[in-house]
Write a structure and sequence with these properties.
heterodimer, A: about 190 residues, mainly alpha, 3-methyladenine DNA Glycosylase II, Chain A, domain 3, Alpha-Beta Plaits, two-stranded antiparallel sheet, 7 helices, about 5% strand, B: about 500 residues, alpha/beta, four-stranded antiparallel β-sheet, 14 helices, 16 strands
Amino acid sequence: MYVLSAIVCLTLLGLVLGLLLGIAGKYLKVESSPIIDELESLLPGSQCGQCGFPGCRPAAEALVDGKAPATICPPGGSALAEQIAALLGLDLDLSAVKEPELLVARVSEATCTGCTRCFKVCPTDAIVGAPKQIHAVVADACIACKKCVEVCPTECLQMHPVEVTLRNWRWTKPIPVFDESETGSALC
Amino acid sequence: MLSFFTKSRIRGGVHAEGYKELTSADKIVSGFPLPKTLYIPLQQHVGKPAEPLIRVGDKVLKGQLLAYSQGLISSPVHAPSSGIILDVNEYPAPHPSALPIRMIVLETDGKDEWVKSKIVVDPFQLTPEDISLRVGAAGIVGLGGATFPTAVKLNMGRENSIDTLIINGAECEPYLSCDDRLMQERADQIIDGVRLMLHGMESDHAVVAIEDNKPQAFYAMQTAARPYPLIKVIQIPTRYPMGWDRQLIRYVTGKEVPVGCRSSEIGVTIHNISTAHAVHNAIRKGHPLVSRVVTVSGGAVGRPMNVEIPLGTLISEVFKFCEVDPSLTARIIMGGPMMGDALPHTGLPTVKATSGVLALTESELKSTDVQPCIRCASCVTVCPAGLRPLDMANNIRMNQLDAAVDLGLKDCISCGCCSYICPSNIPLVQYFKYASGEVVARQQAQHKSEQTKRLMDDRNARMERIARQQEEEERIRLAAKAERERIKAEQAIAAAAAEAAQETLV
C-alpha cells in the first residue's frame, strides 16, 4: 500500500512540476542571452567589420563566449574597452590600446558629379544631396565607416582627420619619463 | 580655542612664494599708449559667443556695442576705443593652443571718444531687475578669471534669496597684485559697486574677504566701508587657493557647498572685487567693460607694473610697454602662475579674464626632472578639494579613467597645489587636466554613438517603409494590369459574340 501511494505521489509531483516547468519555459523564454543585447547596445552599431566579425552582434556573441578580447572594437577605443571589461568582469590592460584617429568624410566640390551613390549607402544619412547637385557631409553625423568612399566614382569623397578647434581641443597626456614597470607596482 | 576652529575651516593649500612686491608698491599706471589695432574676441565669457552687429568698415565709438549676447548665458562685447572695424574673422585665441576663434579687429583713431550714455542719478531707485539688466548690457563677467556673466549670477541671487554676498579680495595667486592695487586706490568705487550688487540681488549683508598679506588694501577697504555697517571687511589667512570660491565660502561662513551644487543654493554668492568695480563703472558712469587693470610681472619684465589697458590689446604691445626681455622669457603666462595658461606666443589679445600677464625666466619655472612617486602623500595633504592626487594620477596613467572619476576627478579644480608640492616633480595636475578633457570627449563619443544608433534605426525604418510601399504599388499595378486584361478579354468575347450575332443575322 505504502509503495503504491509513494508511486502515485511522486508521479503526480513529477507531472505538476513538469507542467510548471513547461509553462515557465514557454512564458519566461529568453530569446538570447541578455548580456549579448547589452553588449550590442554598447558597440557602435555601424557594422563596419573592423573587428573581423561580420557585424556588431556577432562580435558581441564572440565577446560573451570569450573568443574575443575586450579591446576588440577599434572605433570604440579604450573607453568602450573599459565598459566592456566592466560588464563582463574582465581584467584589462589598456596601456596597449591605441586610440582611434578621428576621421570625417568630406566632399571635394570640384569633382562631385551629384551621382547620389554615396548618400544611398550612408548608414546614418550623414550625406545630403540630390541628383546632379553637389553633395555635402554633415560632419556631426558621420561615423567614418568609409562606405561612401568605396562607392564614389570620382574619388571626390575622402576621409580627413577631424579638424581641431577650441571646441574639441584637449590637453595631451603627460609622457612618463621614467621606467613604467618601476611605478606600475605602486598601483597594486 | 577659537583659533583652533578657525583653522579647521581651511582644507589643504600651499604657501607659495608671493613675488607680489614686484608690482604691489606702485600705483596703477594709466598712461598706456593706445594700440593701433585691437583684437576683440567674441567669446570672452562662459556661455555662448556674442553675435556681431557691426560690419567691416563701420565707424564705432568707445563703449559702443559691437556684438550682442546670445541666449541666457552669454555676454555682449563693446568697443574698447573709437575707430574703424577692419575685420571680423578668426584669429589666434589667448589659449594654450592658440587656435583661431572669431574676433572683431578694430583700428583705433586715437581720439578715444566715448559713446554718449545716459547716467542714472540715483541707481538705488532702480528696480533690482533693472540693475541686472544694466550689468548684463555692460558686458560684465566675473573678472576673477571664471568669466561667468555677472547679471546671471545676480538673477540667481534674487531667485535663491542670498543672505551673504562674499566679495573675493583674496588674490591668492603669486605675482598678481591688480586687485590689491585696485582696493588701495579705488576702495570707494568698489564699495559702491558692492552696494549696487546687494541692491541688484535684494540682499543686505556683504563680506569683503582680503588676505592678510595686503594690510593696506584691507585698511583702505575698511575705511571705505565704515559708513555701511552691513558691509563687513575681514582679513583671511594667506594661503593658496584661498580665492577658490568654495574654500572662501567654507572659511567665511563655515558652510560647505555640496558636490554638484552652486553656492547660491546654500544662500551664498561670491563676486570678485574687480567685478564690483566694473559694476560701479557701468551703473554710475554708464561705461561698459572695455578696459581692465592687468598685472605685468615676472623675472623677464624690465618694468613690472599694474597697468590699465583696453581689452583686445595684444600681449606683445603690453610687453613692449613694460620692457620685457624676450631672450630671458622662458614662459609666457596669462593669469597667475598656478592656474594660468602658458601661451605659445605674444601675438594674442588680452581679454576680460586677463588678470595678469607674466613673462617668467627659466629659474622661476619648476624643474621638469620627473622622479618616481615616493608615496609621501604631500599632494593629499595640500589638495583643497580633499582628493588623493597620487592614486588618481596612477589610474590615469594606466588609462583607467573611470577609476579616477570614482576617486573624485570631477571635483578637481586644477589649482595645481599637488604639482607644486610634489618633491618628485610628477605632473599631477597635468594628468588631471588631460583626464578631465578625455572624460568629456568620451561622454561626447557616447552621446554620438547613441545618436548614430537613432539615425540608423530611423534609416532602417524608412528603408523598410519604402520597400513596403513599393511592394504595395507593385501589387496594385499587377492588380490593375489583371483588371485591364480581364476587361479586354471580356470586350473581345463581347465583340466576338456581337460579330457572331451579326453573321447569323446576315
